[in-house]
Structures are given as C-alpha cells and as structure tokens.
C-alpha cells in the first residue's frame, strides 16, 4: 500500500518561494481571492498544500518581479 505524503508550506516558505518578499507582501498575496485556501489554520499560522501554491505560482508568477505581478 502506498500513501501520498502531503507537502505543506507556511507563510515563511511562501515568502521564500516568492523570491524573499516581505511578510506584509506575502500576507497580501495569500489573502487574494484567487490564492489557494489554506488547509489548516494552526496556532503558528496557516498552512497550504505545496502543490496548490506551486500551481498558483506557475500561473501568476511567471518570471516577473513581485512588484509587477500578483
């Protein structure tokens, strides 16, 4: 029996994947209506499925500077 391992990311990992944006900018992006919904809201913060975030980035962040895109 094989099980799929969930890859989760928090705000810090999202900041890194977005090129080191500020916490405020990461919050703005993750609050967008078109950004994936978090799968949990823990005491330490929200967490998202990494594959959902990566899919969103593939569409919205195609090699553009953060200030130009999203």
From TrEMBL:
It comes from the Bacteria. This is AlpA family transcriptional regulator. It comes from Actinoplanes italicus.
